Amino acid sequence: MSRMDPSALLSVIRELKQTVGDAAQTQREVLAVTGTATSPDGLITVVVGPRGQLIDLRIDPRIYRQPNAGALAATIMATTRAAVEKAVEKTAEIVDAKLPKVDDILPPGTERPFDVRTLLRHHDGDLKRALE
């Protein structure tokens, strides 16, 4: 097994100190994240928060011209998932910019520890699969 590069380790330690110092600001940025998506027909718009919680749901009254509860539910679900994916990506971008990169200090061939970024890039419904 090869040894860690001391300069890379010092660089990560500096980045980690900066990350800890910026933790409150990072938390505020993450908590302010929203994701918005509109259905392909333009009749449903969904806004979600950083963990996918529903913040706003707008349904155009034209939806009632051809009532179909099943289609409406499917459209709301698909549009919500698209909004969640946008929020998850924004959150991951914030974290990527703030957290030091683990790969920078691992020697080649070292088993990579679990990375929090993996969780951030998955919808809650997919977390079990992401952890496997």
Structure described in brief:
This protein is mainly α and 132 residues long. The protein has helices spanning 6-21, 23-31, 69-98, 116-120, 127-131, and strands at residues 35-38, 44-48, 54-59.
Task: Name some characteristics of this structure.
elongated, three-stranded antiparallel sheet
Report what the structure shows.
The chain is mainly α and 132 residues long. The chain has helices at residues 6-21, 23-31, 69-98, 116-120, 127-131, and strands spanning 35-38, 44-48, 54-59. The longest helix is centred in the middle third of the chain and has 30 residues, at 69-98. It is elongated. The chain starts with 5 loop residues before the first helix and ends with a helix.
Main sheet attributes: strand count, strand direction, barrel closure? 3 strands, antiparallel
Query: What is the tally of helical segments?
Result: 5
- The portion of residues forming beta strands comes to 5-15%
Instruction: Give the proportion of residues in helices.
Output: 40-55%
Poorly predicted segments: none
Rounded to an integer, what's the Rg over CA atoms?
20 Å
SSE sequence, one letter per element: HHEEEHHH
Shape: elongated
- Overall pLDDT score: 80
Report, as a whole number of angstroms, the end-to-end distance: 26 Å
Structural class: mainly alpha
Detail the topology: elements first, then pairings.
Blueprint: H1 6-21, H2 23-31, E1 35-38, E2 44-48, E3 54-59, H3 69-98, H4 116-120, H5 127-131
Antiparallel strand pairs: 1-2, 2-3
